[in-house]
Amino acid sequence: MLDSYFEQEKERAKAGLPPFALTPAEVEDVCLGLEQPEPGQAAGLRSLLENRVSPGVDPSAKVKAGWLASVAKGNVESPAVSREDAVRMLGSMLGGYNVEPLVEALSDKTIAAAAAEALKKIVLVYGHFETVVKLSLTNPLAKSVLESWAAGEWFLSRPEFPAKLVLKVFKVDGEINTDDFSPAGHAPTRPDIPLHAQSMGQTRFPGGNEVIKKIRAEGHRVAFVGDVVGTGSSRKSACNSLMWHIGEDIPFVPNKRRAGVVIGGLIAPIFFNTVEDSGGLPLLADVTGMKTGDVITLDFAAGVIRGAAGEEISKLEIKPATLKDEFRAGGRLSLIIGRQLTAKARQALGLGEAALFTTVENPRPKQGQGYTLAQKIVGRACGVEGVLPGTACEPHMTTVGSQDTTGPMTADELKELACLEFQADLFMQSFCHTAPYPKSADVKVHKTLPPFMVARKGVSLRPGDGVIHSWLNRLVLPDTVGTGGDSHTRFPIGISFPAGSGLVAFAGALGFMPLDMPESVLVRFKGTMNPGITLRDAVNAIPYFAVKQGLLTVEKKNKKNLFNGCVLEIEGFEDLTGDQAYELTDASAERSAAACVLALKEERVAEYIKSNVALMEKMIEEGYQSADTLRRRIAACRDWLENPILIKRDPHAEYKAVLEIDLAAITEPLVACPNDPDDVRPLAAVAGDPVQEVFIGSCMTNIGQFRAAGRILDKAGIPPARVWITPPTKMDAAQLMREGYYAIFAALGGRTEMPGCSLCMGNQARVGAGTTVFATSTRNFDHRLGDNTRVYLGSAELAALTALKGKIPTVDEYMAVMKAKVLPYAGEIYRYLEFHKMGDFSLGYVR
Ligand code: SF4
């Protein structure tokens, strides 16, 4: 019994790792063992059951709760676990399968008092709340549970927020992105937090984990300090790894930690939220006076950080105002769920609002207040006209996306949240990051995640279908709000606030999401584009002109970034299709913006929605699940088409800043240079640089760009640079095949990859180490596409010509090719997938 468990415990201990959580079969073995324990085994088995089972609605938790419920009822006996013990242990399971037996136990005299005490500390009770309310009319202990929830004892029984915290600094200079915390190359280990954490900092701050360990061994708590912390992807795993190294164990939750302190000169907004949600303490402060090994005191009362001699080294601001409550509650999401329970309990008891929690004074609209487009869309999702910046709100989540490298963690969070059915209108899971070259851990995910999501009424894509956004964008409803566990979840219609997997799970499970409405920056394009200039050049124009106007710096130290944490609102491209619009919203991730909205014309959006309805109908026909959810979304799209009116911003809306870009001033392509998406230069400044690899793919691309690249590359022989071609979806790939473009790509020796993220993610196929690459993908952080690579980012048209030349072409060379091969055929090349006009089509090339 449990031999394999103890074997892996030994093996993992050798690698400095705790054992895995128990599997359902192992939990069964533990329970059986507890019924008739061998001499000397009872305490060990009990400890395993108490501490090594994942909580919530994990399958192991189901077995544990089922057995404890039987013991609590007296149906099963154990010399090691009494009926009261069983109730107490059920009480340590956070929520989920344990709640029903605890509520039932309120009516069993022997264990009712213990059950009441247990329930008072649980906030994840969902529908069982109503049962307790009903029971409270006749059962005094049920009433005491309700009163306890109303009094917020679940919150007050936890340690108060400290007045001071003494910490020892571990500092990394410059920018630390989420890939530095959670390297893409180690993506398959992400669900195993302690193992994955071993890869933290391996290239960015090698040896750092040992330094942190040493500081902790000395008895200090650690403050992780950086100039710019957490840019890049919205990886919960980045936060998981960091908390594992600097945080504290969570009672009764195996292999997870919280309560780590992160101090940054800048902390990327998604990462900031993820730390809040993980029960950590993110703090913004000037960190220039701190270095590794410094002992600092966070003096919250005085609002300063002090050095070892008590001197002030920096100001300290607690923001948002609820941060102390969040930390005390074990995380922002726990606080929100608990506060909701308290509010409901008070309402049920006829009590007024609780004065327990920090209240947020939301900004009040003035007479005739004007709202921006984003403020109005979020306002509608909150049931008000508009939401001003700084407002703490909880918009309804209409669409939520999850991709495969974060999906398993989202699934774990859903289990912890005891979610058995999504409350968000549509939840979609993709497999774009791992499908082409799956490792064994990925294969398991491809098999287990679809049924997990579909069982909760989510829509599951299939491995090989393509990039999450190129699908999810086609399932979105206009003027609605959503989120996703990928930092590029930035809908072309409506608005999305991407988030870490914990918040994504929360949004999916509860159907709303906490949001501190950011300020908006308006980017207004005017004039018309010059011939040969592409939308990608307009994308690159945003950082290019922002730098010129002093609103953005490329230098990391004391980096200035006007867009950081703001909503980017773009005007001047109203005629774009949904596919094209995404190129602009997608790139707002590289600006570290919280979200992006684009003003579009109603007729363009209506065409997009009609096309999307045809796509969803085809998905149902081809067996995609959950068909009910897709049908519901089709009905919602049709409703919108009945009255296709889009929200418009108020003319007198106020913005943090306005960046005007004259399209006529862009006279040559703009290219993001190695290795910073903000370091944009005109083509002439980089022409002639030799390039060995070219990547045409990622969610930044759509079918038109592949046609353009195909035209440029057709009959030009084998190019000196290796060409990677990866259409974003299988529908794009199928159409390109039907039109003969795959034959062109084959003739040039191009490497055509399975639709998906491919090189953009860099966790599977990689370009050659030390090469220079020209890519159409989103970002060019160090090592993302390959080790020690230099990566330029620009349009597919420029990428194709760069491949042909083996170096970046001159402006004249580029313009000549565009005039000869692309611009005369623009109408044919830049046609987008309009599924409603495709007759009897199939999603893939082969039916
Ligand atoms: S293509 Fe790149 S940016 Fe887009 S979802 Fe995939 S990895 Fe992320």
Can you describe this structure in just a few lines?
By secondary structure, this protein is α/β, with parallel strands linked by helices. The model has no long low-confidence stretch (mean pLDDT 95).
Would you write up a description of this structure?
The longest helix is centred in the C-terminal third of the chain and has 20 residues, at 602-621. Strand 7 (295-299) and strand 8 form a beta hairpin. The chain folds into 5 domains: 3-156, Serine Threonine Protein Phosphatase 5, Tetratricopeptide repeat; 164-319, Aconitase, domain 4 (Alpha-Beta Barrel); 395-513, Aconitase, domain 3 (2-Layer Sandwich), CATH 3.30.499; 518-600 and 647-667, Aconitase, Domain 2, CATH 3.40.1060; 669-836, 2-Layer Sandwich (Aconitase, domain 3). It is built from 33 helices and 27 strands. 56% of the residues are buried. The strands form 7 sheets. The chain has a 7-stranded mixed β-sheet. It has 847 residues and is α/β, with parallel strands linked by helices. The site of iron/sulfur cluster has 13 residues, from helix 21.
The kinds of small molecule bound in this structure are: iron/sulfur cluster
Distance between the termini: 49 Å
What is the spatial order of strands in the main beta sheet? 6-5-2-1-7-8-9
- Calculate Rg over CA atoms: 27 Å
**CATH class division of the largest domain:** Alpha Beta
User: Any idea how many domains?
Assistant: 5
- Total number of helices: 33
For this entry, what is the oligomeric state of its chains? single chain
CATH topology of the largest domain: Aconitase, domain 3
Q: Architecture of the largest domain, CATH level 2?
A: 2-Layer Sandwich
Helix fraction by DSSP (H/I, runs of at least 4): 25-40%
Beta content comes to 5-15%
Q: Please mark out the parts with pLDDT under 50 across 5 or more consecutive residues, or reply none.
A: none
What is the name of the CATH superfamily of the largest domain? Aconitase, domain 3
Mean pLDDT: 95
Q: Tally of extended strands?
A: 27
Query: Which class best fits the helix and strand makeup?
Result: alpha/beta
What does the overall shape look like?
globular
